[in-house]
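User: For my dataset I need records formatted as: sequence, then structure tokens, nothing else. Please produce one.
Assistant:
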Amino acid sequence: MSAPIKVLFVCVANSARSQLAEALLRNSDARFQAFSAGTEPTEIDSRALAALEHVGVDAEGLRSKSIEEFRDEYFDYVITLCDKSA
């Protein structure tokens, strides 16, 4: 069995888009390890959590994180979700 594909989704606040992407990928395909971070993290938007709950995706453990937490990590893909975070 090969190592999982590590994906980091980056947005400015790490409050909605990147959180949604992390949760959806994490819960859809075991070949991937999904993470998210922000350049200026805040809090997770309650609408993002409600959207995940609505489609039956577990939001357990989601929290807004700084990209600095992943400074020494290797990712196969880093996907920016807004121009400002690129």
